[in-house]
């Protein structure tokens, strides 16, 4: 069965790149535009892994990760943070919020898929 | 979708982000201190940088990076968004826009300006930010910054081992150095001690997956230490009890080994020690605690991401008090399976509720929008245009065959007509867009010209959300830019002159948009010196545009600046008034079916008023007959229609005639003569006069032979096939299937002023 990835990113460009990359790699991809929408679609999407941006309107990545971790069903789901923030402080905050790992933008497709493979069985 | 399409989307998004950036900065400039505004501004730059990075647009990335760093200082309250700071930021936004354009369309950008702004931004960031901020090196390529940062982040704070309620297990390599590793391979060997903390699991990391990754690096043997595992009834389901000791032979290096634990390094105790290949100790006495556990990778794949940490309390209690660690582990595995079943059931139960919640959430969301390819909309508009024509033709043939007009067909047709009209309006509304983006671009123009001229200018915009057809918006930017440039450069005085005239040093340029009687009216006003009528008049005389003794109203003099003869820039720059290329502006506006005029008050400034159709696809027209031809006159141009009375007609010179309407005289223009439909002027008493308003504000009476009726017509451009036809704006297809020409009222009126249509045309070609 195809693995399902939920991506949360406010940039249309990045959303499209994720979609193409993930579909090419044989993943099923569900997309949300910000943290609020991410949490809204979470139950129905029922993903195997989540890839999220940090800087987003309405609800940012930190808040979104915390929201996912509060959900009994998804609190152990792997969450990868996809962001250009490469400095230690932001990575640390994402980690504290419950992120499993991170991918530094600009991502290349191989790295993205590698990271997803790393945190999923 | 391929990369090029995504790139196209990226640039579209850039445009939106740039608009967001600019409007945010302008709000900050106006004193807005809402953190969300700063966030939005930051996000805009951040987003551009992110996308640009993905496409390897290095110039864009490095500039955006510096910009972002400085914005981050504002966001974290390290830098106050003062006017000076915002000035630099607005300029940076302009450069960012330039860089985006260069990235999309090629060409070059102002390297010096960009470098200068990078320096200014860095200075701002440095001035207030802590010295460690990356502002010091942002000019360096982004890739370098991205690489160095994770290394900096790799120094984890060492949390107290006891905080999670377990005893740290000391891993001494002296105690169990590579017990069952056979040192036959020459590859470098590593001893890895890995003890996850509970946090590792709560963040969705999984020890088994890390071990799997590690095993891919080379030859590996694993020992699992289960010493800490308590009896099952005492087991905390969310606590990490196991630790591992791994012997690994790999040629990938220690970095690769550590890389595996990259995501987990804060949440585990990790020791990686390189062992010299030959030094491997044959340690026969195996440590009691370290039972070799067969590590079957295929088992991992069968049981994906089993959430080991989530076991229910009662299941624990029910479990037997098995001391044997292996049995406990087996038990745990079965619990996991059961737990997964529970989760699935819980999921099914909640499904209905979740679906309901989902619906509510969607309804609560703001009015949704979709992006549609413009081609599709245009296709739809074209089809609706055909539908309108078809409906009109159908109506006409029914009327011809059903003269008494009482049949049900006739009534049905009326409803169809109404529906068609509504469909048309709805389709047009799809293309309607607010003028906001164009207005925002003007803000930049004002800034740049103000900078160059050393004037202090404030741009006030009003009615930014007024909607108009996208084609109109697209074509509006160029003439508007031209006019804004003129307003600041020539309209506004220098601060010294302004102060001397008793005005504030800062000039104001105001741009407003509003809807008025089915058209959009855009006004551009300044509070400058106004037009110097003496100089304009003199120049017009010098250029043989008017006779030296011509008696012109102020209004007529003001409108001379739109004349082609005024477009020679070097001479006009001497003028304090306007004139640079205003004829070009006028032609652009006219090409859009619009009108433009100016009113000026010496010492108080000038107002340019443009009136444009809301759409370029349809117009309400009056269908008239001229010399046997059917013409359409745009209804918006017509003030009134009248049947001329012989007594009201006054001849004036050889060919000129005036008509007196309510005690004022108005030139009478025979449309048929102007368009060369006939050789001599028709008798005005036999025709109908259409009183029209020309762009100069003056009125003319256009004479036609008869009025056929009034209807909405679909505009079909002639220019693609026939180039510009003087006096004719476009064509349309009437209900009977015949083609009718749409009259270019302004061109006809100008022609009546003594210039022939062909002269206008040659000037247009020259421009």
TrEMBL record, chain A:
Residues 4-120 form the Response regulatory domain. One of its GO terms (biological process) is phosphorelay signal transduction system. It comes from the Bacteria. Keywords: Phosphoprotein. The keyword Membrane does not apply. SMART domains: REC. Gene3D superfamilies: 3.40.50.2300. The modification 4-aspartylphosphate is found at residue 53. Pfam families: Response_reg (PF00072). This is Fis family transcriptional regulator. It comes from Pararhizobium antarcticum.
């Amino acid at each position: 069965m195809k693995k399902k990835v939920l991506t949360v990113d406010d940039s249309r460009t990045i959303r499209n790149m994720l979609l193409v990359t993930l579909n090419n790699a044989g993943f099923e991809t569900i997309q949300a535009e910000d943290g609020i929408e991410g949490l809204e679609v979470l139950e129905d999407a029922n993903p195997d892994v989540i890839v999220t941006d940090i800087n987003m309107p309405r609800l940012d990545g930190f808040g979104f990760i915390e929201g996912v971790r509060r959900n009994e069903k998804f609190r152990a789901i792997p969450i990868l943070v996809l962001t250009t923030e490469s400095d230690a402080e932001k990575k640390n905050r994402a980690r504290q919020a419950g992120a499993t790992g991170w991918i530094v933008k600009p991502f290349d497709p191989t790295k993205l898929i590698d990271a997803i493979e790393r945190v999923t069985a | 979708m391929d990369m090029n399409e995504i790139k196209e989307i990226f640039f579209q998004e850039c445009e939106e982000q740039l608009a967001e950036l600019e409007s945010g900065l302008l709000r900050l400039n106006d004193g807005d201190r809402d953190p969300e505004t700063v966030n939005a501004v930051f996000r805009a730059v951040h987003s551009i940088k992110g996308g640009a990075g993905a496409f390897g647009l290095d110039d864009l990335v490095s500039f955006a990076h510096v910009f972002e760093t400085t914005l981050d200082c504002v966001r974290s309250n390290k830098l106050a968004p003062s006017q000076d700071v915002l000035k630099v930021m607005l300029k940076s936004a302009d450069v960012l826009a330039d860089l985006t354009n260069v990235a999309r369309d090629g060409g070059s950008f102002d390297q010096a300006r960009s470098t200068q702004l990078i320096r200014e931004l860095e200075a701002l960031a440095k001035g207030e930010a802590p010295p460690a901020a990356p502002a010091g090196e942002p000019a360096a390529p982004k890739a370098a910054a991205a690489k160095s940062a994770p290394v900096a982040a790799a120094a984890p704070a060492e949390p107290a081992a006891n905080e999670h309620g377990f005893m740290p297990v000391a891993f001494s390599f002296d105690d169990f150095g590579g017990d069952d590793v056979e040192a036959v391979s020459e590859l470098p060997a590593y001893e890895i001690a890995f003890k996850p903390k509970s946090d590792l699991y709560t963040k969705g990391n999984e020890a088994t997956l890390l071990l799997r990754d590690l095993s891919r690096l080379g030859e590996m043997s694993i020992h699992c230490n289960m010493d800490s595992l308590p009896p099952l009834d005492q087991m905390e389901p969310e606590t990490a009890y196991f630790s591992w000791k791994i012997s690994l032979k790999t040629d990938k290096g220690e970095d690769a080994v550590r890389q595996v634990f990259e995501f987990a390094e804060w949440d585990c105790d990790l020791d990686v020690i390189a062992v010299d290949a030959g030094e491997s100790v044959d340690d026969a006495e195996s440590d009691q605690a370290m039972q070799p556990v067969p590590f079957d990778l295929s088992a991992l794949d069968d049981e994906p991401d089993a959430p080991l940490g989530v076991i229910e309390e009662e299941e624990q209690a029910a479990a037997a008090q098995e001391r044997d660690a292996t049995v406990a582990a087996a038990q745990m595995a079965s619990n996991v399976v059961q737990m997964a079943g529970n989760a699935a059931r819980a999921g099914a139960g909640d499904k209905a509720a979740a679906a309901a919640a989902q619906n509510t959430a969607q309804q609560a969301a703001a009015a949704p929008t979709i992006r549609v390819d413009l081609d599709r909309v245009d296709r739809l508009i074209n089809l609706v245009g055909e539908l309108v024509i078809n409906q009109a033709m159908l109506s006409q043939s029914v009327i011809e065959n059903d003269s008494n007009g009482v049949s049900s067909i006739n009534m049905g047709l009326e409803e169809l007509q109404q529906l068609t009209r509504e469909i048309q309006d709805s389709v047009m509304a799809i293309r309607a867009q607010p003028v906001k983006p164009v207005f925002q671009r003007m803000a930049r123009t004002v800034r740049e010209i103000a900078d160059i001229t050393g004037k202090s200018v404030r741009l006030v915009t009003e009615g930014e959300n007024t909607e108009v057809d996208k084609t109109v918006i697209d074509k509006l930017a160029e003439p508007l830019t031209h006019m804004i440039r003129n307003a600041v450069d020539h309209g506004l005085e220098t601060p010294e002159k302004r102060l001397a005239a008793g005005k504030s040093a800062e000039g104001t340029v105001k741009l407003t948009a509003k809807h008025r009687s089915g058209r959009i009216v855009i006004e551009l006003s300044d509070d400058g010196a106004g037009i110097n009528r003496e100089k304009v008049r003199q120049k017009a005389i010098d250029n043989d545009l008017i006779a030296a003794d011509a008696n012109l109203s102020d209004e007529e003099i003001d409108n001379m600046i739109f004349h082609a003869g005024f477009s020679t820039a070097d001479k006009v720059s001497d003028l304090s008034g306007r004139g640079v290329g205003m004829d070009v502006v006028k032609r652009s506006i006219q090409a859009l079916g619009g009108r433009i005029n100016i009113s000026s008050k010496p010492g108080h400034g000038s107002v340019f008023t443009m009136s444009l159709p809301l759409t370029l696809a349809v117009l309400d027209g009056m269908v008239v007959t001229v010399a046997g031809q059917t013409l359409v006159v745009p209804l918006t141009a017509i003030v009134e229609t009248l049947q001329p009375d012989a007594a009201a007609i006054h001849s004036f010179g050889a060919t000129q005639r005036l008509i007196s309407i309510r005690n004022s005289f108005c030139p009478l223009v025979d449309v048929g003569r102007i368009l060369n439909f006939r050789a001599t002027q028709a008798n005005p008493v036999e025709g109908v006069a259409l009183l029209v308003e020309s762009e100069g504000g003056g009125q003319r009476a256009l004479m036609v032979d008869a009025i056929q009726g009034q209807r909405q017509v679909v505009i079909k451009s002639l220019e693609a096939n026939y180039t510009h036809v003087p006096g004719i704006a476009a064509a349309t297809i009437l209900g009977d299937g015949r083609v009718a020409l749409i009259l270019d009222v302004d061109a006809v009126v100008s022609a009546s002023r003594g210039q022939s249509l062909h002269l206008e045309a040659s000037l247009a070609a020259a421009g």
